[in-house]
From TrEMBL, chain A:
<dbReference type="Pfam" id="PF02823">
    <property type="entry name" value="ATP-synt_DE_N"/>
</dbReference>
<dbReference type="InterPro" id="IPR020546">
    <property type="entry name" value="ATP_synth_F1_dsu/esu_N"/>
</dbReference>
<keyword id="KW-0472">Membrane</keyword>
<dbReference type="InterPro" id="IPR036771">
    <property type="entry name" value="ATPsynth_dsu/esu_N"/>
</dbReference>
<keyword id="KW-0406">Ion transport</keyword>
<dbReference type="InterPro" id="IPR001469">
    <property type="entry name" value="ATP_synth_F1_dsu/esu"/>
</dbReference>
<dbReference type="GO" id="GO:0046933">
    <property type="term" value="F:proton-transporting ATP synthase activity, rotational mechanism"/>
</dbReference>
<keyword id="KW-0375">Hydrogen ion transport</keyword>
<feature type="region of interest" description="Disordered">
    <location>
        <begin position="90"/>
        <end position="115"/>
    </location>
</feature>
TrEMBL record, chain B:
<dbReference type="GO" id="GO:0042777">
    <property type="term" value="P:proton motive force-driven plasma membrane ATP synthesis"/>
</dbReference>
<keyword id="KW-0472">Membrane</keyword>
<dbReference type="GO" id="GO:0005886">
    <property type="term" value="C:plasma membrane"/>
</dbReference>
<comment type="similarity">
    <text>Belongs to the ATPase gamma chain family.</text>
</comment>
<comment type="function">
    <text>Produces ATP from ADP in the presence of a proton gradient across the membrane. The gamma chain is believed to be important in regulating ATPase activity and the flow of protons through the CF(0) complex.</text>
</comment>
<dbReference type="InterPro" id="IPR023632">
    <property type="entry name" value="ATP_synth_F1_gsu_CS"/>
</dbReference>
<keyword id="KW-1003">Cell membrane</keyword>
<keyword id="KW-0375">Hydrogen ion transport</keyword>
<comment type="subunit">
    <text>F-type ATPases have 2 components, CF(1) - the catalytic core - and CF(0) - the membrane proton channel. CF(1) has five subunits: alpha(3), beta(3), gamma(1), delta(1), epsilon(1). CF(0) has three main subunits: a, b and c.</text>
</comment>
């Protein structure tokens, strides 16, 4: 059985990654997914969080996505991210600051709408930090 | 020498115009490069989502989204992407011609048409043409469009489709063939079509047994958002491509204008020289005949 699976990661702005990989780990809205070749066709929405890919040589790469869609065919994975960036491009201080700001907003929200916006911002900021921590742990 | 002076001032004014057009040409050239980069950058997403939606429409989903079901066409909607500014040759005119040709075909079949104009040239045209057929208009997108700007007018058309006011939705924009050529095209957005040739024939599962995706969370919520995102991304791609076309067309139009101004100056210069020569000749003959009389 082929152990390779073709993976395309695109964001609205550009193509982030395209190539053969062994394993893709992504955060779906219903939980984390690990995908290898021969996976059943699946379509899911993505939650903000890290996406990890392992290439054939065992080399690992981690990306951050802010949400989007994931489509799985037996040997193709297409990841349509709203925004995506390589984990090592994330500025930790900035992410931490964004998280704190979102938390502050969350505590002093006035309307339900503001609350949900703050909640989404908080989720994104903490997902960014989680991505960074995962990157550090791997090293 | 009265005629000579007039011609001289005319040459001056043509020269000024030439300066402006050549400056516009250079501005358009640099903007075109950036617009092309932007077009190339957003292409992977548009292509990928088209591929995914192509797969989805080939699957046998438990839930048939209204966007996937072909309907009897009673009303056709067009999202017409035009430029905000003129001076870009026949770009918009050609686009309107092809829209009108397509719309006429539907009218002949007894269907009505509705328009959504993106870009101020489009809204002006359709307002003049018949405002009752214009559902939404959006202008002032600028050189670097963002999806948020387009969502509003796209939503109007999607809502109309959802309510059954539209049975078919097309997007019309100029296709960037190369710098010299831009061709207007009409693309069908909804209901979904599977005219995309499958690039991965070997892995195409539709050839075998009927199949379906696993959906997480559930098919309805997922397809709703995916298909709306699909339409938005296709419209965004059309707008970005049209901007690249606009700049290319403007560059060519301004290059032609500069060249024509050059020719005009040459002609005027010739005329001026002739007039000057005639005046001198006349003066000499007056002097000679005056001397002969003495």
């Amino acid at each position: 059985m082929a152990s390779k699976i073709h993976c395309d990661i695109v964001s609205a702005e550009k193509s982030i990654f395209s190539g053969e990989v062994e394993l893709v780990v992504a955060a779906g809205t219903e939980g984390d997914l690990g995908i290898r070749a021969g996976h059943a066709p699946l379509l899911t929405a993505l939650a903000p969080g890290p996406v990890r890919i392992v290439t054939e040589e065992g080399h690992e790469d981690i990306f951050y996505v802010s949400g989007g869609f994931l489509e799985i065919q037996p040997d193709i994975v297409s990841l349509l991210a709203d925004t995506a960036q390589r984990a090592r491009d994330i500025d930790e201080a900035e992410a931490e600051q964004a998280r704190q700001e979102a938390q502050r907003e969350l505590e002093q929200h006035e309307s339900a709408e503001q609350h949900s916006i703050a909640l989404a911002q908080f989720a994104e900021a903490s997902a960014r930090l989680r991505t960074l921590h995962q990157l550090k742990r791997r090293r | 020498m009265a005629a000579g002076k007039e011609i001289k001032s005319q040459i001056g004014s043509v020269k000024n115009t030439q300066k402006i057009t050549s400056a516009m040409e250079m501005v358009a050239a640099s903007k075109m490069r950036r617009a092309q980069d932007r077009m190339a950058a957003s292409q992977p997403y548009a292509r990928q989502i088209r591929k995914v939606v192509g797969h989805v429409s080939k699957a046998n989903p438990e839930y048939r989204h209204p966007y996937m079901q072909p309907r009897d066409v009673k009303r056709v909607g067009y999202i017409v992407v035009t430029s905000d500014r003129g001076l870009c040759g026949g770009l918009n005119v050609n686009l309107f011609k092809s829209v009108m040709r397509d719309a006429k075909q539907w009218r002949d079949q007894g269907a009505e048409v509705r328009f959504c104009a993106i870009g101020s040239k489009g809204s002006v045209f359709f307002r003049k043409y018949g405002s009752s057929e214009l559902l939404a208009a959006k202008s002032g997108i600028g050189d670097a469009p963002v999806t948020q700007d387009l969502i509003g007018s796209v939503k109007v058309m999607l809502d109309a489709f959802d309510n059954g006011e539209l049975d078919r939705l097309n997007v019309v924009c100029n296709e960037f063939v190369n710098t010299m050529t831009q061709t207007p095209i009409v693309r069908q957005l909804l209901p979904l079509t599977v005219d995309e040739p499958a690039k991965d024939q070997t892995t195409d599962p539709s050839s075998s047994a009927p199949w379906d995706y696993l959906y997480e969370p559930d098919a309805k919520a997922l397809l709703d958002t995916l298909l709306v995102r699909y339409v938005e991304s296709q419209v965004y791609q059309a707008v970005v491509e049209n901007i690249a076309c606009e700049q290319a067309a403007r560059m060519i139009a301004m290059k032609n204008a500069t060249d024509n101004a050059g020719n005009m100056i040459d002609e005027l210069q010739l005329e001026y020289n002739k007039a000057r020569q005639a005046a001198i000749t006349q003066e000499i003959s007056e002097i000679v005949s005056g001397a002969a009389a003495v």
